[in-house]
Amino acid sequence: RVTRAACVRSAMARHAGPRLPLIVKNLIPTLSSVFESQRITTTAFFAELLNSNVVNDLILLETMMDNVTGRQKDACVLVRMLALRGLGNIATGSPEKVRKHGAKLLASMVNGMDDKDDPHNLVALEAMSSLSKLLDHVEERDIQSMLLHIAIRIRPFFDSDQSDLRQSSIVLFGNLTKFSERNCEVFFEQILNGLVTLLLHLQDPKPEVVKACKFALRMCGPNMGCEGLCDMFLNHLREDRSLHYGEFMNNVCKHLVSGCQSLRHR
């Protein structure tokens, strides 16, 4: 259904044009249908449509965003996941609108990560992936109040048995460091708490997780108060460079012991 919705969205965006407002209006009631299949299909369609700027051109964005946001408490996990995907897609379809609605979108992602009725973490996974997309466009003031909560919430996913959860949580953590300057001391504690795990996962069996760890450590480096360690992360953890893990860890330990005053007094 999700793939089919993507194909329909693409065709609608290209050819439906002025008819889209009426189509959207007629579909909105099905978002509350008693039939789960209808809610899933319509939410998937709306989520994909939000991936296109056509909804902004036709002044549909706010209407669709409000209706998709309303599906976050749906009884169906897949509907809740698709709702978050749609909100995250605004970063692609209408990035200039993310700044305007930043606080609301961020709150939706945080609520998704806190979903208590999500045994396979599908909602949390989508929330983390979508949040990483939104962070490039939100106002810093909107993320600051949630920064610590998000960092603490995603930390357990670093060691998840599911590789996609490990990857998404680690990438998100790296992206969060862009906003850590104002909360440097507080966020520094989160870097310390995750440092060993990130270093260990440089040997993760999944290449995408290794890539995520390299990215996160490169992003964390400037916040660690150790120029030598920061340089090591930037030079040795490039995506296109192979890593001699034993030698790398040996040098990291040397820097941690001798060069990082801020770490030695913790």
TrEMBL record:
Residues 70-262 form the Maestro/Maestro-like HEAT-repeats domain. It comes from the Eukaryota. InterPro entries: ARM-like, ARM-type_fold, HEAT_Maestro, Maestro_heat-like_prot. GO terms for cellular component: cytoplasm. This is MROH1 protein. The gene is Mroh1_0.
